[in-house]
Structures are given as C-alpha cells and as structure tokens.
Fold this sequence. Notes:
The structure holds 2 protein chains of 2 kinds. Chain A is mainly β. Chain A has helices at residues 215-219, 244-248; strands at 5-6, 14-19, 22-28, 33-40, 47-54, 60-67, 73-77, 81-83, 88-96, 98-105, 115-120, 125-129, 136-143, 155-164, 170-172, 174-177, 184-187, 190-193, 196-200, 206-211, 223-226, 235-239, 241-242. Chain A is built from 2 helices and 23 strands. In chain A, strands 9, 14, 17, 18, 19, 20, 21 and 22 form an 8-stranded mixed sheet that branches. The relative contact order of chain A is 0.18. The relative contact order of chain B is 0.07. The termini of chain B are far apart. In chain B, the strands form 2 sheets. Chain B has a 5-stranded antiparallel sheet with strand order 4-3-2-1-5. A 3-stranded antiparallel sheet of chain B has the order 6-8-7, covered by helices on one side.
Amino acid sequence: MRIWGPIHLDQHESRVFSWGSLQMSFTRTLTGWEIEYTNRGILLTDRLAESRTILPARNSFPHILPATHDKPILLRPDQPIALSPGTSVHYQVFLPLWIQVVTAPVSQQIIGGETFLDLPTAPLKRTWFGTFESGESAYQIPFVPLDIPDQSADQYMVPLTISNDSSSILWFERFLLRAVHLDLYQTDDGIVSNHVKVAFRGTDQFSQISYGDGKALRRGGARQCAVQRQASSGDLIRKSFLWLRDLAV
Amino acid sequence: MRVLSSFFRNLSVGTTADWEKIVLGFLFFLAGIIVLRIVSQILLRSFAKGLREQTREVLRKVFLYTGTAILFVSVLNATGVSVSGLLGAAGVLGIAVGIASQTSLSNIISGFFLVSERYFEIGDVLKVGEQMGTVYSVDLLSIKIRTFDNVLLRIPNQHLLEQTITNVTRFPVRRLDFIITIPIAQSIENSLDALRASARQCSLALEEPEPITMVREQTIHGWSLLLGVWFERPHTVLVRNSVTTAIQHVFRTRGLHIQTATIMVATETDAGPPPYGG
C-alpha cells in the first residue's frame, strides 16, 4: 500500500517515486523543491522529461495525492454485452491513477487543493463520445469485465452497477464513465471510489446516474484520500451508452 | 468662470457668449458620448445576454452611431446653430454621399446577411481565398481576421458574401489527411497496417471516429495511400507533427519504404550511347 501525504526530506536530499509510466523525483533545495518527472509524450513511444521548481509557503511541504482522470473515460468491451430487461450487473472497473502535487503544512491531512502538478500514470488515448456537433472528449480505456485483475498500487477501482430498467435489451458497447465526479478512498485492498449506479431507461439512451456518498466505505474503515474534480448534483440524467448504429449515422 | 470669460474676451473671433456656448456644447457632447457608452453596456448586459458576441457588437455599434448622430444634432440645436439649414445641406450632401458610398452601403447590408447567417463567430478560424486566420472583429463594413503570423486582415463584407468561406473550427473534431506514396512493388496491406499503427501511436489521434486508411490511386511513382486521422480542434499542429513522425518511424522499423518522386536525367556523352537507348 502506498502512503499519500507530505514528502519529508532534508535539504539536498532526493527521493524518487514511480507509478506505472510516470517517474517523479523530488529534491529539496535551500529555497524550495525541484521536481523532475518523465512520462509518455504525445507520441506514446516517446518519453517526455520535464521539471518544475516549487516554492511552497512558509512551513509548507509538497504532498502527493491520488486523483481520478480529468476527463470522462470511455469503457469499451472487446465485444458488446447484452443486458436483458429488468436485470442488473455489477463490475469492478480498474483504472490507472493520476498523481497530484499540492502544498500544505506537514501536520495537515489534506485531500485536495490548488495543484502544482496533475499527471497521469499510464499512457492515455483520446476518443470522442457522441455526435460531431454535440459529443464530448474522453479517454478510451479497454474494458475487460470478465477477467478482473488484481488491483495494483497504480490503480483505483470503481464499483459500477448497471441496471436495465427498460423493456428492451441494453447493448453495452460503449459506456462513458464520468470519473471527474468520483471521490477516492484508501482501503486495505487499495484505492476505491464511491459507488456508481447507472439505470438505463431505454429510449434515447438517457440514463440516470447516481454517485454514492462513500458512507459505506467510511464505515468499513476507509479513509478519503481525494475529492472529486467536479461537483455532481448526486443524481444526473445523462447520455452514458453509445451504440454502433449511432456512430454510423 | 471669470478666467474663462477673460480668455474668451481675448479671442478675436466671435463674442464671449458664442464661445461659452461652443465650449459648453462640446462638453455636453463629450458627456453625452460617455453616457451613450454606459447605456449601451447596460442595455447589452440586460437585454442581449443570449445573443452571440458578433450580434451584440453590431447592435452596440448601431446604437452608438445613431445615438451620436442624434446627440450631435441636439447639441448644435442647443448652441444656436441652425439645424434646419444643416439638414437641408445634409439632404444634398446625403444624395452625394449616397451615390459615392454605394459600396459602403452594400458592405453594410452584406454584413447584416453574414451576421444573420451565423456561419462564423468571433474566435473561429476562417479560410478566405488564400488567407487563413482567426476572426478578430465583425464590423459594419468588414470583418477583421488575425492571421497566424499575427497580421490583421480586413475583408469587406460584400467580398466575403460573394466567395467561398471555409470555417475550419466550426465542429469540435476534425480529420487530418496524410497522403503518402509507396513503391509499386511494396505490399499495400502491410503499408496500410503501418499507417494504422502510426495513428495508434499518437495519443491525441482519436480512437473514435476511427482513423481511415485507403488506397487513393496508382500514380507514376507508385501507390498513393491515405491515412485520415480524427482529432480535437485545438491539437492540429501537435497531431500533424506527431503522426508524421510516427509514420516515418513505423515505416522505417518495419522495413517499408515511402516513395519520393525521382527524376532520372540521362545525358549523351562521347563515351557511348545513352543508358536507356534514347
């Protein structure tokens, strides 16, 4: 398990962290902190090295926090999954973490704040969800629902329940998960988000999406380690599923 | 006030009262202009919230110009200048100006058509003829385009209405086409596969809509192939550069060739016949 929080270093001391494709090196200098990091570039075969100097406020230190993706994620199973009317299915979706660097006093337990760095830990591929006129930008991640892997320290798990409340078959070909509305919790098994429930209502593919408040996780001893990037109004009615025929139009 | 009166007394033209009227009229005109600007802002904020920026700009200008004209006539009237004579002269002048400003009038009317058509907005990237740039402002007579090398271009509205305009940034996603030629003996299937792999290597190239690959035609240099990559509007330069780099890299690592146009020149020398029997 990885500890999220402040980085304790003496002057001129360095420490290297590694998550997936992201490598970060923190060095404390006389006046501030030097942070060097390498990650995948725009060309996924390239590695891009960059550095930043951070000058925190008095008595403040850099903190490392886990975070969710900064855009929605398009989950696309290898083959369409058909859900009969009136049935529901529960998935555990494993997604690569993002890493944020914020500054705060060492004694302070923080779960968010003004970020100095916000970096993905895995290469990301862009995709488009919806029509050319009114779609939205997203990241595409392969979805392997029947072969659940062990959770690594570089991932967070999203409990996802999809229920088909319509009278027609739900063809699950592409599902847009709005990760920006998720909080993250540290459990003994790894990082888990609040529960996402999607109720498919049929016509026009609009779905009711509800995000859990994390009470069950807290009761189980989990500690919140990141706040949602964008506030959600609890229940949302949004387009979540996209079928192949929509793309062909 | 006494200083002002003595100042006017010292002037050789007109009476003190005349000068005082003129100065007061000028100050009133200036104050009126400021009030007009404030009122136009308030009106726009209150009643034109939902309108597009360029429509708001046109409305603001119509309000300001009309208001300024009315204010000018009112000030002249208040300072004792005979407006009736001026209006009579303005009538004659209006006919002369009207004949002379047919083009301007045409531009103004064309401007209204352009705005009502809603084909572009301020901030859109337009291609007009050979010129390309971002719409900087939409005015009564012309639109201003800021080109990518930071030059301000003025295009009369009438000219714009008559020719084909391309709005490059109308939709959030676009396709960029890469055309390469491969030698005639090279495997088309392997080359198309290499093009698809090149698109996959660019993180900004969209997975959906999927990149398109196709054989365009057979040319004198070989097979012409097309790779069409979809991307989000702001990433044009990054996608163009990274996909081109990826194509070069993937073709090189897979031992595939990209054909370049070659010209063979045979020269006749004393040593013997030309190599191709010409």
